[in-house]
Amino acid sequence: MLDDIQTLSNAALKDLATAISVPVYDRSAITPGIVHIGLGNFHRAHQAWYLHRLMQQGDAMDWGIIGAGVRAGDEAQRKRLAAQDYLTTLIELDPTGRSAEVTGAMIGFVPVEEDNAALIAQMADPAIRIVALTVTEGGYYIDPVTKAFDSAHPDMAHDAAHPERPRTAFGAMIAALRIRRDASIGAFTGQSCDNLQGNGAILRQTLVSLARMSDPELADWIDAQCTFPDSMVDCIVPATGPKELELVKSFGIEDAAPVTHENYRQWVIEDRFCAGRPDWDKAGATFTDDVHAFEAMKIRILNGGHQLIADAGEVLSVEFIAGCMAHPLIGDYFRKVAGTEIALQVDAVPGMTPETYVSLIDRRFSNPEIVDTVRRVAFDGSSRQTGFILPTLRDALAKGDPVEGLALSQAIWARMCEGTRQDGSAIAPNDPIWDSLNTAAKAARTRPETWLGQRALYGDLADNAVFRDSFVRWLALIWDEGVEAALTAYLKG
Fold this sequence. Notes:
about 10% strand; 21 helices; alpha/beta; Rossmann fold; 5-stranded parallel β-sheet; N-(1-d-carboxylethyl)-l-norvaline Dehydrogenase, domain 2; single chain; about 45% helix; 2 domains; about 500 residues
């Protein structure tokens, strides 16, 4: 650790070590163009980084990012970032060596308020041309099986009944669009950056459906005037904890909210922006009319692969993702399922076959510098399993392709949701619907079919005899002999 540590701020940039890349542009000249809701580590390591790189080239100075949040806890993040002039230290964790850079594309953060009045006013500003979101896969108020809009959710009912004081990001976006329409300002682009297949279409569905509950004419205007480009985002970004707060000091920086990330990024975007956009392609992003194939490859192999190994790691008391890949069984389980089951349901994209992508993800997951916890990756399985694993399983069953490893993944998830590890320690609740998952998992210990009876998750998959019989057999083996025995049997099969 360096003796001379600078507290991160605009004024301190000139005093940082020369090896640390810092903004070369005049941050005081940046004007806002984007509001980003859900401003966490991933956004700062990914989308904000691309914009920062454009600004380093002297471009996109009218596209500054204003952060936003709709949860009470987001206020603490706002205060941390405001105290350091909204700068972020990014630390790249490459096995060949670590490096740091300070990014400055973010220039503000809207106060977090219960009625979201400040957020609505910011999004109604004519300067804002893109409203982007990272609100997690489960944050779009859709049914996990049918993908239909969940109009009965209390949050949606509230925002429909009280459109002038919404509690959700989507209600706030609709309120801002109403102001823009009435003032003839024009629409903005809604840009989802979450790991959802067809994330732009899902954002459109949520926004238009919610607006229709209170103002059908506004819903029609939003549907006609706004654009919602699909996109695929990719970069492994661990959570920030005490280790990361100490790590940033080794670069001579005191940063209250540093971000660590792997040495890989990808951003594939549909080029549909009703009010203009930055030239992100000049910083390495890809604009294409066929995002779907890129989405499917990444979501099914990377995000689906994460679920395969994280649940097994949790049950077997493996703390980190890289540790799962080094495990004598879990790593090979990922390689076999991804290579022989998931890859069969994924099309090639320009420059990448599914098999090559599996090898790429193998290397990325195995990076020992990325201290990514199993608990973080396993969080919200009710959204991630239904979004990342079950669509692949459905496709495989329809084609008569192998599903043994995918069925085993569901048995391991059920075992994890029982709430104990094999060493007897407790697994803390890790899902928004943990109570119902836990109840079903405990019942499934003696009656495995009970787990598949969760129709809100599995729909008619529970009626498929091939899947059901495989699942029942795997879960029975897990409870009789343990996860290691099931993994061993699969790998030898």
